[in-house]
Amino acid sequence: MHRRSRWRSRNRRRREDGSWAVRARVERFGEPALLRLLSERPTHGYELLERLPELLGEERVDVGNLYRVLRALEEDGLVVSEWQAGLPGPTKRTYTLTDDGREALAAWLEALAALRDGLTTFLDDTEKGGDHVR
Amino acid sequence: MHRRSRWRSRNRRRREDGSWAVRARVERFGEPALLRLLSERPTHGYELLERLPELLGEERVDVGNLYRVLRALEEDGLVVSEWQAGLPGPTKRTYTLTDDGREALAAWLEALAALRDGLTTFLDDTEKGGDHVR
DNA sequence: CGAGTCTATATGAAACTTACATATGTTCTT
DNA sequence: AAGAACATATGTAAGTTTCATATAGACTCG
């Protein structure tokens, strides 16, 4: 008869002063971010890990998931990987974007642009009737 | 020894012609959308269900989750509800935005605007180095 | 008035995503 | 030689979205 413990959202939480802190993110944004970095040049996972936070505007990126996403991308043929020894430091697995990956990135960019435009519409419409909000 | 069956993403899939179809969405976007509709006037769930698709630009909204989100919002004090009989049709539960809900909506709008700006930066930067992409 | 449709609110469970914890081995620094 | 940094992973919990199904009153049409 105990109250069913509710799942807490990770996107909205109450600050100590009682106000709301909200974080809005795009689903699976890590994928286009990785494809974009790889579109510049082949890169290994650990370096991607270091360059992602700035691109994402987040403090840190989950290491485990990064490598999982990379292998998923490879399974789908968007990237290929190669072990690279002989360089300073431990052996690295270097990922290279394929043509298919380039197409997927282009598709992502279109979708993200559409999302941005949708957001703009949503925000404008809300402002417009926004005597309710402010 | 069977290959571990991979989780298929719902955001990227291959079309029959081989090209990629990508769908970009904001995490938990249903919540700000509901708050926004409720900021106009008190509304019951079923009507929200009908008005959401246009606002979201999606074909349909999951009925079950709609009601779950509404009750979560109520648990968090962002809305209050009241059963309303005497109207045509089955008894409806009408939700009304609270002051706290209005604040949460405002926080959402800020976060969404920030996300939009971040997307713009991401897209511009990618275009810029975009000899890689096109 | 009976059958079927529409309105209205909900629960259960599977599939997917994100977050947190930990493992393993190499290389570099001091 | 010890410890930090580099590099790549796996396991699992928590949270989110999707798909399926349940329930019941009200309306509509023959």
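Confidence is low (pLDDT under 50) at residues 1-5 of chain A.
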